[in-house]
Amino acid sequence: MNKLLVPFEFNRDDFNKRVKIELYEGMEAEIEHLLEVCVPLISPKVIFSCNRVETLNSSSIKVESEIFTDQQLIKSLKGVDTIFPFVATCGVELDDIDEFNNDMLASFWLDSLKQMAMNSAFDFFREYIKTNYNIDKLYSINPGSDSCGEGWDINDQAKLFNLFPNITRDIGVTLTESMLMYPNKSVSGFIFQSEKDFVSCMECENEYCPNRKMIHEGKIHH
Question: CA 22 → CA 5, 17, 28, distances in Å?
């Protein structure tokens, strides 16, 4: 099991585009204050492991002690013998700030910062795996992608979390009874070597994966 503390470089142009900064003329001081308070606290994190995939039969696989039967997952992992289960998060630090709790606009700006932090964590993780395990292309699949069409059942989130028994202590992420993660800007899944770069369901409006993006061979699809 491995933990990554991810360096975060704030990109002001990216932030401005995300929040549509042109809509907030006259509120520059409020935005600058929020950024001054929040940006230095951002601390994205990733926890991951490297595991063998054991095929039990045509309808089930085993990773460590967890048995998975979701057919879309099994289809995606056909022929794959090694995976990297992971959870990447923006970190709990911004959720610990009380100052902006009752300000809807500030909460939106803060959410955009958290999204940027989560993206940084996931991108850093992907590059880390490629570099340290000598892998050129990676495929990622996330629990909950079934809610955006054909994909991996959200209920397998619990099994994935069982692979990281100390995850809350290690990176601060917890799993709710409805299989949502806290902090909300967190993403989990399996990543593995593939013939093409593919990331399933990282940014959408679905309640299970808020503001994720789908990247397919370097292109973002909406």
Answer: 33, 9, 10
**The pLDDT of residue 81 is above 50:** yes
Phi, psi at residue 124, to the nearest 5°?
-65, -45
CB neighbours of 146 closer than 8 A, spacing ≥ 6?
Answer: 70, 72, 152, 153, 154
pTM, full prediction: 0.86
Side-chain half-sphere exposure of 18, counting CA atoms within 13 A: 20
Q: Peptide bond preceding 40: is omega within 30 degrees of 0, i.e. cis?
A: no
Q: Which fold has domain 2-221?
A: NADH Oxidase (3.40.109)
Closest alpha carbon to 43 in 116, 108, 137: 116
Domain boundary assignment for the chain: 2-221
* Confidence band, pLDDT 50/70/90 cuts, at residue 150: low
Would you say residue 82 has pLDDT above 90?
Answer: yes
